[in-house]
Task: structure prediction
Amino acid sequence: MKRSHAMIAIALILVGIAVYTALIYKQLPDKMPIHWNIHGKPDGFADKKTAVLLMPGIILLMTAFLGALPAMTPLQFRENITGQTGDIYNYMMVVITGLMTYIHVMMLEAALLPAMDFNKVLFTGMFFFFGLLGNVMGKIRRNPWMGVKTPWTLASDKVWDPTHRLAGRLMVGSGLLGALLTLLGVNPVPTLIAFILAVLYPLLYSYQLYKRLEARGEL
Result:
C-alpha cells in the first residue's frame, strides 16, 4: 500500500468516525465509561466531550508519529523500509488505525448499551486485527520499527526472515482462533494470555536460531 493511499484511507476513517459520532452524540449519556476491568465492567469514566474525542485524538497523534518514523530511520536500514517493506508499513498504519477505530466504536456502543458484553466484543475484534497484522509479518525486511526486534534478528537476515515467517503464522493462527473462541463465549482473558505466549515464542526462537547458525559459522 502506497503512503498516499494509506493517508487517504486514514483520512476517510477519521471522517467516518466524525460522522458516526455526530449521529449518535445526543443519545450518549453525559458520563461515559472509558475503561473496563478484567471482568468487562466499567471502572473509569469521563464526560461525554472528553470520551468522544479520546480515541480520535490518539489516532491523530499515532498517525503523526508513525508517519515521521521512516524519515528517522538509520541509513543502514533505510533501504529496507522502502519498497515492499514501506508498503507493509503503510498497511500496518491503516490496520492499527482500524483497530483504534473499532475500540472507539465499542466505547460509544457500550455507553448506549450498558448490558453489552464488552469484553467479548472488544477481544473478538482485537484478535481479528492482530491476525491481519500477522498476515504480513513474514514479508517485513530488517528494520528498527516493525516486527520481532531482538539483538539476534537485527544482526542477520538469516535470523530475521525465519523468525518473522514463524511470528506471522503464530499471529494469524492464534489471532483467528482467539477471535473464534471469544465469539463462541470462551473467557477472553485466558485466551489472551495464550495468544501473548504464542507471539512471544519467536523471541526465544530468534536466540536459538542465532546460536545454532553461529555454531555452524553460517551467519
Remarks:
- The mean pLDDT is 89.
- The beta strands are 31-36, 42-47.
